[in-house]
Design a protein that fits this description.
The chain is α+β, with helices and mostly antiparallel strands. Helix content is 34%, strand content 21%. It has a single domain, classed as Beta Polymerase, domain 2 (2-Layer Sandwich), CATH 3.30.460. Helix 1 crosses helix 2.
Length: 130
């Protein structure tokens, strides 16, 4: 990887924020699991917005980090799309799917990374049922 996982997740978060994704959460998993180093989780209010967020992330990461996703699973119409960059896994949810799966709750003890983005969630704001 030409850039660090932290740099890649930062670029992806900026791209999601540029497309007005909401409740952006970045979870630092470096010391929690061998699966990946970071999760980026965000919400898009519509299928069109989810498509725009996914496209923006892919384009901005390609341009700035020279990286392409290893795989993309799910469709924006299903409510949850996952983009796998190896050390960084990006989850773009529609509101109902995010509430249902609540994956940030599974990693509740893992530290959050705050880049100060407009759409970035306040600590615990995405997990009101904790």
């Amino acid at each position: 990887m030409a850039v660090t996982p932290l740099e890649l997740v930062h670029v992806a978060a900026i791209a999601a924020d540029d497309k007005k994704a909401q409740d952006i959460v970045i979870i630092d998993l470096e010391n929690e699991t061998d699966m990946c180093d970071y999760f980026l989780i965000c919400t898009a209010s519509s299928k069109a917005q989810a498509d725009a967020v996914l496209e923006a992330i892919e384009e901005k990461v390609k341009k700035n980090c020279q990286e392409a996703p290893l795989s993309v699973e799910g469709k924006a119409g299903s409510g949850w799309t996952l983009m796998d960059y190896g050390a960084v896994v990006i989850h773009v949810f529609r509101p109902q799917a995010r509430e249902y799966f609540r994956i940030e709750r599974l990693w509740g003890d893992a530290p959050r990374v705050n880049f100060g983005l407009e759409g970035q969630a306040e600590p615990d704001s995405c997990d009101k049922n904790k």
